[in-house]
Amino acid sequence: MDNVTTEHSETAAPSTRGDGQPARRRARPRGRLLLLAVLAALLAVVLAVAGGAWWAVRNVSNSIERIPDAFEIPEEARPAPAEDGSLNILLAGLDSEDSGEAFEKGEARTDAVMILHVDQKREKAYLISVPRDTWVPIPGYGENKINAAYSFGGPSLYVQTIEDLTGLRMDHLAVIDWRGFRALTDALGGVELTFDEPVVTWDGTTYDPGTHTLSGDEALQYVRERKGLPAGDFDRVKRQQNYLRALMRQLQAADVMSEPGRLLDIVDAFGEAAKVDDELSATALVGLGLSLRDLDAESTTFLTVPTNGTGWAGKASIVVYDRETADLLWAAVREDDVQSFVDAHGDLVTGEVVS
Questions:
Q1: Predicted TM-score of the model (pTM)
Q2: Distance between CA 239 and CA 112 in Å, rounded?
Q3: Residue 14 pLDDT > 90
Q4: pLDDT tens track for 16-31
Q5: Pairwise CA distance, residues 176 & 38, whole Å
């Protein structure tokens, strides 16, 4: 398989919405899938549990497809489980409009890779993004872009690649396609983002400084933009995290508990588009929700794995993995002391202001 990841280069005629009104021109999203909806949906489940809405958890659990072979890896080849009670959840987004057939055949790539680490006390969380073009070893396939692992061997090889790279055992896996991103955003009534300067999205729409409520389609255009950003994919990762932080805050601020229909829309959107490992049963979802009920956007730190910029592997443009510094990060995760690493490497943290 060719290791060069391509991206659509078509451009749309720019439009503006300086008056705050919705831009009507929308390009059909293709290609770049985002898994941000996974965390938003898990948060919705947490809210449901915290509010006593067990019926919502049962509803979403029954609709989510399970991944039966996500951890089909020889036990001796896996890192040891964390003994301190901390939690690692691996998130994957498939670059497919419909994750069904591509998921079953392992044909899609994971164009968004994130590891969520929750500390032992369930008081802090760290969302670590790995750029999709990061050049890493893939068991049995040599070195390649990290987003190729899923297409080479499906969910289990994807998990094994991440575990080998980090030395961390993944407790759960969630996979989603971009339909879930749009559905969850729209179920919430859009997501509110505030910009300090003009912002251009993938389809050419320009947002003037100020606060805007983006629909699912519009938000997808915001997080897909890469070529027009100074740092390319690195800035796109920051946009993804900025959107997720805003969505988390909005979910927490929304009085979804008083609107059962709205809550059902949110969790149903997750159930229709997502797949999780088969250890996340309804009972496990309830337990996860209860354990995470005190987490919010303010207690979650967003950061990007250490890299040495971009480079080339043959004709493929890649992100160069900074193994030395990354190993310090993974050691901090393993020791459940990520904050010490963050304090020493503030340049890797996504701040509140993202263009």
A1: 0.81
A2: 12
A3: no
A4: 444 444 343 333 332 2
A5: 7
* HEC secondary structure over the chain: CCCCCCCCCCCCCCEECCCCCCCCCCCCCCCCCCCHHHHHHHHHHHHHHHCCCHHHHHHHHHHCEEECCCCCCCHHHCCCCCCCCCEEEEEEEECCCCHHHHHHHCCCCEEEEEEEEECCCCCCEEEEEECCCEEEEECCCEEEEHHHHHHHHHHHHHHHHHHHHHCCCCCEEEEECHHHHHHHHHHCCCEEEEECCCEECCCCEEECCEEEEECHHHHHHHHHCCCCCCCCHHHHHHHHHHHHHHHHHHHHHCCHHHCHHHHHHHHHHHHHHEEEECCCCHHHHHHHHHHCCCCCHHHEEEEECCEEEEEEECCEEEEEECHHHHHHHHHHHHCCCHHHHHHHCHHHECCCCCC
Return the closest-CA partner of residue 350 out of 246, 227, 241, 249.
Answer: 241
Highest average pLDDT, of 18-22, 36-40, 287-291, 312-316, comes from 312-316
Cα dihedral sign for 92, 97, 181, 285? negative
Q: Does residue 52 surpass a pLDDT of 70?
A: no
Measured between alpha carbons, how far is residue 24 from residues 68, 102, 205, 227, 283 in Å? 42, 31, 10, 23, 43
Q: Distance between CA atoms of 145 and 171, rounded to whole angstroms?
A: 23
Contacts of 149 (CB under 8 A, 6+ apart): 110, 138, 141, 157, 158, 160, 161, 162
What is the set of domains in the chain, with CATH numbers? Answer: 36-198+235-348 (3.40.630.190)
